[in-house]
UniProtKB/TrEMBL annotation, chain A:
Taxonomic lineage: Bacteria, Pseudomonadati, Pseudomonadota, Alphaproteobacteria, Sphingomonadales
Protein name as annotated: Cytochrome c-type biogenesis protein
Job description of the protein: Possible subunit of a heme lyase.
Family: Belongs to the CcmH/CycL/Ccl2/NrfF family.
InterPro entries (alphabetical): C-type_cytochrome_biogenesis, CcmH/CycL/Ccl2/NrfF_N, CcmH/CycL/NrfF/Ccl2_sf
Domain CcmH/CycL/Ccl2/NrfF N-terminal: 33-140
UniProt keyword list: Cytochrome c-type biogenesis, Heme, Iron, Membrane, Metal-binding, Signal, Transmembrane, Transmembrane helix
GO biological process: cytochrome complex assembly
Transmembrane intervals: 115-136
Superkingdom as given in the UniProt entry: Bacteria
PANTHER family named among the record's database cross-references: CYTOCHROME C-TYPE BIOGENESIS PROTEIN CCMH
GO MF assignments: metal ion binding
Automatic annotation (TrEMBL), chain B:
Record has Repeat as a keyword: no
Entries under InterPro entries matching the protein: Periplasmic_diS_OxRdtase_DsbE, Redoxin, Thioredoxin-like_sf, Thioredoxin_CS, Thioredoxin_domain, Thioredoxin_ResA/DsbE_sf
Keywords: Cytochrome c-type biogenesis, Disulfide bond, Redox-active center
Subcellular location: Cell envelope
Protein's name in the database: Cytochrome c biogenesis protein CcmG/thiol:disulfide interchange protein DsbE
Any one cellular-component term (Gene Ontology): outer membrane-bounded periplasmic space
Residue ranges annotated for the Thioredoxin domain, each copy included: 35-176
Gene3D superfamilies registered for this protein in UniProt: Glutaredoxin
Keyword Secreted: no
Upper classification of the organism: Bacteria, Pseudomonadati, Pseudomonadota, Alphaproteobacteria, Sphingomonadales
Pfam families documented for this protein: Redoxin
Amino acid sequence: MTWLKTGLALLAFAVFSFQLISYGVAEQPYDPYAEQPLKNPAQENQAQDLMHTLRCLVCQGQSIADSNAAMAADMRAIVRHDIEKGWSPEQVRRWFIDRYGDWVSYKPTWSKRSWPLWILPLVILSGGIFLITRLFKREEKP
Amino acid sequence: MKPWLKWLPLVAFALCFVLFRLALSHPENPVVPSKQIGKPLPEFHLPAALPDMAGVETRQMKDGKPHFLNIFASWCVPCAQESGALMAMHDAGIPIMAIAIRDKPADITRFLNRYGNPYQAIGVDQGSQVQLAIGSSGVPESFLIDGQGVIRYQHIGAVTESDLPQLMTIWRQITA
């Protein structure tokens, strides 16, 4: 009976792994550069840094480096191809911003809409320093 | 210290609270409009998705006549919903070019047999390169292209019967 059990187990394993393989093939991205790193390690580092600061368009809370979405894979392939062609990361970022707006980039910029975000902490800090100095002056008096 | 000054932190806190409360009641808009409207189509040549139909290339859309460019996929559920409205545009004589995203000929054939074929040509974009180049962020999306190959309008999501009057108005504007 042992050989029967072993045989059945082997068959089950074969069926299971075949399904895994066919699933894997179906989900394969079209362009190998979606997953495969660039040959030049310096360029791959540039591409990786950039991918972590570009937003996935369909899964909106994630960067394209972290997302499993097919569109994020296609975007990674574009990033790697452009970096390989010799584009600077900021040129590639600009290419995406020209198509999807500042929204697509996680890198904060100084713009007409975002400058209060940079100024506000300074305003609050100076307000706090002002309050504290006034408070200490009062305690020195008596 | 002036007496009102000690209330300042509380007032600041209250202001922040109101600001955050208001911002939270307006969830982020998930629709990402293309910034390529008003710009010419990029140069591309997409191979035919089906053996018996033409592919899609920029040159075809610069022939002096406007075109309707539909981005779809056979695996996309809302794409099936727009078949009625697209067929109505086809019947009105509007040439509809299609870009199929990450798709297979057998699946596209099954999709068209089931929902009808309003398309004049279908190019297949396996790596979404053209889709990304024109600033489209999903399927289905549609673009109105004027006779010079300039993107004039973007419609995000399925085209429904209720979108037709507006699309036809813009179509007439770019045809004139």
